[in-house]
Write a structure and sequence with these properties.
Order of helices and strands: EEEHHEHEEEHEHEEH
Number of strands: 10
Largest sheet: 7 strands, mixed
Structural class: alpha+beta
Shape: elongated
Strand content: 25-35%
Radius of gyration: 20 Å
Amino acid sequence: MTYPVRAVGTMSGTVFTLPDRDTSSTKVRIFGTSATIVHRTHHAEHGRRCGEGLGHLDSMELLDVLMGLPSGEAVPLSAVGPSSLRVLRRAPSGVVNFTPRSVTRLVVPVVTPLLAVVYSSHWRDGLVRASEFAAYCPRMFVARELPENADEVLVEASWYGVGVAVGPRSAPTVVLDPEPLSEWRPSVAWWRFCERVYRHTLDR
């Protein structure tokens, strides 16, 4: 089996062309591994959070409750369970807005992950590390060169849906495109992943 190769534009060590000002890349340390996350940024939400003094959210309990509320729509307090209301009342300023009869979710994820890129000199290590991001966004790993059993390795990577690029970090060549997420829906874990990437953008 032969795979076509194609050169791609790169920026900040990624193998992803950044099409506009809303798309950027951030180096993160997450799941015990280092990766570059290419993401789209919701600048209005970032500005709003900065104005509120609100950073990233890390509470799974809070995010779980927030996912049950529509964004920007007032929900009658009578429609929210007592335990969820207690969680929301403890939330930092800028997360929700309460009135005597309703609560409105203000927050949305600041970043939307588009691609996770890991770099490894060992193919098995790269495949395993890239697979850590399977539930959150397409993923790819970059190696210096193809091994002698390239077809076998690329078949395995394709089976896992992991893209592969080879060459220097500054200008790698894609030999296998990452598989897009199929039938994907946002989850609490996904939102927390977005928040953790956002935290790394704040640390830059």
